[in-house]
Design a protein that fits this description.
Oligomer: single chain
Number of helices: 10
Number of strands: 8
Length: 302
């Protein structure tokens, strides 16, 4: 009987030791997964702040393409105006190929649904088609369900404060973020009325940092210079807002760790015929900045 008890105790001790060792190995493996090649280093969170620019914003797809090909991880995305549209399409699956496929299919008619009576509601464009397009093409309809953490920036029309939507309908938040004053009808969400985020926060650098980014990379789409002063009411409103946003953006973007300026030439805000050229311009600009991007990430790696 004593021999049996002794063997039982030895068996239990051996089992306990084995379980402890297995737990240590599992913990070690999990820790290594957080660092590159098991070095024990912790990479900083990389956030990308996407600015506005109308159709010129397709260049942002090229920037994302370069990041994916160069294996630069994007941990979160915050976008203003068209940046919110491109950002949401990308954050949906985290695949640039998926985002590019959807972006290439966007036409002017998918965004600008003009209504003669809409002017009495504050704009010429209702924005219903934009929401329909997103609800049709996105796999995830709610912001909190997107594969990559995402924020869409709009401005509360009453207070003038920039607001970042991190929950709720993706389509509605993007619509609000793209609601150019004088062009789009303002968007009501939760009893508040919103317009384009570019009015006060054209390149959401600080909100990207607030969302948790250690490294903020800003994508700036410079405004187009028309051959002559616009006369069409929609063009006047858009160009006026663009000038204002551009001046405000110059100040805010200074706090980014890296700034990417795609050379989009003089493509008009509503010219959807040059997507390929714009995407290539964004990719080229991002690749030019890769040494600086890697240096910043390296410097902030713990």
């Amino acid at each position: 009987m004593k021999i049996y008890k002794k063997r039982t105790i030895n068996f239990l001790i051996t089992g306990f030791v084995c379980l402890t060792l297995m737990a240590c190995v599992t913990t070690s493996t999990k820790n290594e997964e957080k660092s590159p090649a098991g070095t024990g280093e912790v990479l900083p969170k990389v956030g990308i702040a996407l600015g506005g620019g109308g159709a010129r914003g397709f260049a942002e797809i090229g920037v994302l393409r370069a990041f994916e090909q160069e294996k630069i991880p994007i941990d979160l995305v915050v976008g203003t105006s068209v940046g919110s549209l491109i950002g949401a399409i990308y954050a949906d699956t985290g695949s640039v190929l998926d985002a590019e496929f959807i972006a290439i299919s966007i036409n002017e008619e998918d965004i600008f649904d003009y209504g003669a009576l809409s002017i009495f509601s504050g704009g010429f464009v209702k924005g219903e088609k934009l929401e329909k397009f997103l609800n049709t093409h996105l796999r995830n309809k709610e912001i909190q369900n997107l594969k990559i953490p995402f924020g869409a920036v709009a401005v509360d029309l009453r207070t003038g404060k920039a607001v970042m939507f991190e929950q709720g309908s993706v389509a509605r938040a993007v619509h609000a973020s793209c609601a150019i004053p004088g062009v789009f009808v303002p968007v009501e969400i939760g009893g508040r009325v919103f317009v384009d985020g570019g009015v006060t926060d054209p390149i959401p650098v600080e909100l990207t940092r607030k969302k948790g980014a250690d490294v903020v990379i800003a994508v700036v789409i410079d405004p187009a210079l028309p051959q002559q002063a616009p006369k069409n009411p929609i063009e006047v409103a858009y160009h006026a807002v663009t000038i204002m946003s551009s001046e405000i953006g110059v100040l805010g973007v200074k706090n980014a760790d890296v700034i990417i300026h795609p050379d989009v030439g003089n493509v008009a805000y509503d010219d959807f015929s040059q997507k390929k050229r714009l995407i290539e311009a964004g990719e080229k600009a991002a690749r030019t900045m890769m040494p600086e991007i890697r240096a910043v990430i390296r410097a902030k790696t713990k």
